[in-house]
Write a structure and sequence with these properties.
279 residues, eight-stranded parallel β-sheet, alpha/beta
Length: 279
């Protein structure tokens, strides 16, 4: 449970100096799209479909190896994308095509992208392409401060990730570093598992008392109904990842069209978000 003696001022100093992510009012869907799965042309069409459906934001994942926090579906998506050599430069070219029409959060792994290519260089290039925010994956705590400084220098808001069972100290640290939105991971373990969003309502309410940033719920949201229940629990953003990749994978296995399958699924999820926005 959140340590109720905390105050926003306890951890706001660092974050107050950093750039913020602006979002439209009302619930927002954020589908995760694996860049390059099964190829970059598919990614381009899915981004275009998101724009056409009025999706406010997407999480665009740079594929990486050893995705130990991901379930089998996303691991397969990483593998397919890596076979297509979905490089940072190629993905950022896609971002530049769409950044004026949709907010793109770039998920970049520490071991595969950030450290080998250089944190400052990656973030500067991402900002130049129009990335709206960055979500670091697997970043060692010892690099946290330098990453935050590089993000500030690049003008990129940072997504903070926090697990439902995180300690109060961990929450303080994450909240103090979050400037885009706070990503509440519903379950500790691999992505793609089931979750009941209503079980997390108290945690969402407690977090909201300590951050001005939007709160996103993810890991285990697999249907429009799950998205609706995430909003009912108080989250501002619903992140759907494995289920989108699952649509791509199923279409590839059956000889269908991954663009149509994943696009229609995203449209159904977006309808749930749209129907809950203020008139």
């Amino acid at each position: 449970m959140m340590n109720q003696t905390l105050t926003p001022q306890s951890f706001a100093t660092q974050a107050s100096l950093a750039p913020r992510l602006s979002l439209p009012s009302g619930p927002a869907l954020c589908p995760l799209i694996m860049a390059g799965d099964p190829n970059l042309d598919t990614t381009r069409h899915l981004l275009a479909r998101c724009v056409a459906e009025g999706v406010a934001m997407v999480e665009l994942c740079l594929p990486f190896r050893n995705a130990f926090t991901d379930g089998a579906t996303l691991q397969h998506a990483h593998a397919r994308a890596l076979q297509q050599e979905a490089s940072l430069q190629a993905v950022l070219q896609l971002v530049a095509e769409f950044s004026s029409r949709i907010k793109i959060i770039l998920l970049a792994d520490s071991s595969h992208t950030l450290r080998p290519l250089g944190i400052e260089q990656v973030l500067q290039q991402a900002a130049a392409a129009g990335v709206a925010g960055v979500l670091p994956h697997g970043l060692p705590p010892r690099l946290g401060e330098s990453f935050q400084e590089a993000a500030r220098q690049a003008g990129l808001p940072v997504v903070g990730t926090i697990y439902a069972n995180a300690t109060p100290e961990t929450r303080r640290q994450v909240l103090g570093q979050t400037t885009a939105f706070l990503y509440l991971v519903s379950t500790y373990g691999r992505s793609g598992g089931a979750v009941e969003p209503s079980d997390l309502k108290c945690q969402i309410d407690a977090l909201r008392a300590h951050t001005p940033c939007p709160i996103a719920l993810g890991f285990g949201l697999r249907s429009p109904g799950d998205v609706g229940r995430a909003f009912d629990a108080g989250s501002d953003i619903a992140i759907v990842g494995s289920a989108v990749a699952g649509q791509v994978e199923a279409a590839l296995k059956t000889g269908g069209c991954p663009i149509a399958s994943a696009g229609d699924f995203i449209a159904a999820l977006q309808k749930e978000a749209h129907d809950r926005r203020p008139a």
